[in-house]
Amino acid sequence: MRSEQEMLELIVSTAEDDERIRAVIMNGSRANPNAPPDPFQDFDIVYIVEDVGPFRYNYEWIKRFGEIMIMQMPEDMQDPPPSNSGGFGYLMQFTDGNRIDLWLEPSANLSELEDSLSRLLLDKDGLIEPLAPASERDYLPKPPTAKAFSDCCSEFWWVCCYVAKGLWREEIICAKHMLDQVVREQLMKMLTWYIGMKTQFTCNPGKFGKYYQRYLDPALWAMLEKTYADAGYENTWEALFAMCMLFREVALPVAEHFGFAYPHGDDQRVSAHLKHVRCLPKNAKEMY
Fold first, then answer.
1. What is the predicted pLDDT for the residue at 113?
2. pLDDT value at position 60?
3. Which residues make beta-bridge pairs with 43?
4. Which domains are seen in the chain, by residue range?
């Protein structure tokens, strides 16, 4: 596996040798002083060019970066849809383990590329104002509004009923989708606010909560682990109730801290409903 220094030298020398590339910026975890280094870190690179077109329709030039295991060009895809922002990307996973997410952006888009996790690697023309030291300031959670908190609680308890319905019907795929996609999204939102409250919103919990374990008490982390289940019905019921317990555990102090109203009635009624549905006979003709 090529070293970080080798990769950076390759990335910068490629730009130096190509008159069409005027500047190079590195974003992401390798620009983040707080990100623990490991061999899976991508090289998130932006090449600033005057015209993206020549790079978009000639794929030969990227071969100098190494032997590619798999590559995506998001702007050439239909699903997921392209951003159509004027740039073009090559997401390249190499056979030696390195990965470069390389974006070519026209110089006209410079004002839209501001990111607090940025390091300037090359600027041939002085196009870019001196960058502040890389920091996580753009990635810190923000305090919730009363409306955001209320909507989060409403969506959480509302969709829990869908999970229960799917489990009773023995439609595990639907139930798991509702639990792990929709309900969990609201739980993660509340956990992020809770961590923000505990850290004065100065710490980055990471994409998809990857740093949650750093900031949650061991007891809360253990509760979070219990919200993940296999495809078994009983285990999924247990995960649902663990999710409800954890949501309540963190939402109450968030509500108290910000002076928000927690929907105790919704919590109590839905919790009782979930317990009722779990025990409802499979041949039931009526719910109550």
1. 87
2. 87
3. 100
4. 4-138 (3.30.460.10), 141-279 (1.20.120.330)
- CB proximity list for 234: less than 8 A, separation 6 or greater: none
pLDDT at 227 over 90: yes
Residues 6+ apart with CB under 8 A from 250: 190, 191, 193, 194, 220
State yes or no: pLDDT of 56 exceeds 90: no
In this structure, what DSSP letter does residue 96 have?
A: T
In angstroms, how far is the first alpha carbon of the chain from the final one? 63
d(CA 50, CA 98): 28
- Are 118 and 31 contacting, i.e. CB atoms less than 8 angstroms apart? yes
Neighbours of 67 (CB within 10 A): 9
Strand (E) positions, 167-265?
none
H or E element in which residue 100 lies: strand 99-106
Full-model pTM: 0.89
Which range has the worst mean pLDDT, 107-111, 185-189, 213-217?
Answer: 107-111
